[in-house]
Amino acid sequence: MMSLLQTIARPTAGSSATFSAAFLTAAVLLFGAPAVSAQERGAGARKPAETVALAPHRAFYELSLLKTTADPSAPAGASGGIAYDFVGSACEGYTTRFIQDTDIEAHEGESLSTQMRSTSFESGDHSTFTFRIESGRRQDEPEIVEGAAFRESDGSLSIDLKRPRPFKSDTDHEAVFPTHMMIRALEAARAGQATYSTKLYDGTSSGDRVFQTLGVLGRESVEPLADATKDAPAMKGMRRWRATVSYFDVAKPEDPPVYVLSFQMWENGVSSDLILDYGNFQMKGALTKLELLPVKECGK
To answer: Is the dihedral of CA 58, 12, 175, 158 positive or negative?
Structure first.
């Protein structure tokens, strides 16, 4: 996924926050895998042997509680699902649509049922990112975050929010957007890098937050997995790497990570076998259905 991972955000006890973004990043998402740092992209950095081509695809994930701690605020149960669409190319840009439903069962007090809907577009040159994220309890009106961000030639970031409140900001963060992040992560994997980091902007957390990410890559593998990837002929023999990514609030560098995401990162940008670590509990995201969509060639 482009970054299904981009849109998975940390829920907080007693709030209506959802598991939203960025594996967009990406997601495609969900969910985002991190990019190589600016230093790694310098003159001495090792370049990939071939261009990364992300596959347009539609994916469905089943969420379940993997494990929990003895912390009283940890949930007694958790379940849900993710529906994820990623289409586009370097010529026309990349569009991601994402819906996540999550049910959190509390040991005491009120249980929580939430839904998050996200639509985003990232230009093919990764300089522009527009997004709309709706999230909240299913029975309530959703909270909406909507806006755009622009990455300047010097790497600085300009943010222009429409909702929840008009807000403009120019920062010096060398942040990348979710699809660019996935491409850079795959470049790092192909180059044999074991660790990498970058700053990410994906529009989550009220749209004004930049994350510092730190990623670790496992060994390359082509062994099949017992999920929906085994039913897609195009995935047979494809390289993949186990990626573990920690997300930190760039404004609070001394704090523990906001959340940690682990997943199988396939060479075409598909992600599977998600593990979402929120500290006092973990959720598993099993890929149950995968549809690889037609690739639209540039100029056609």
So the answer is: positive
Find out whether 196 and 185 touch, Cβ atoms under 8 Å.
Answer: yes
pLDDT digits (tens, 9 = 90+) for 117-169: 999 999 988 999 999 999 888 888 888 999 999 988 787 889 999 998 888 88
d(CA 233, CA 185) in angstroms, rounded, equals: 24
Task: For residue 86, give the nearest of 120, 61, 133, 126 by alpha carbon.
Answer: 120
Tokens in use for 11? 């829920």
**Whole-angstrom Cα distance, residue 5 to residue 30?**
3
pTM of the predicted model, to two decimals? Answer: 0.81
The answer to whether 34 touches 185, Cβ cutoff 8 Å, is: yes
Strand runs (DSSP E) across 69-153, as ranges? 77-89, 93-105, 112-122, 128-137, 143-151
Helix (H) or strand (E) holding 181: helix 178-190
Strand partners, 169: 159
CA distance 150 to 63: 33
- In the chain, the percentage of residues whose pLDDT exceeds 70 is 82
CB atoms within 10 A of CB 8: 36
DSSP 8-state code for residue 231: G
- How many residues in total does the chain contain? 300
Give the separation between CA 257 and CA 248, rounded to whole angstroms.
5
Q: Domains of the chain: which residue ranges?
A: 57-292
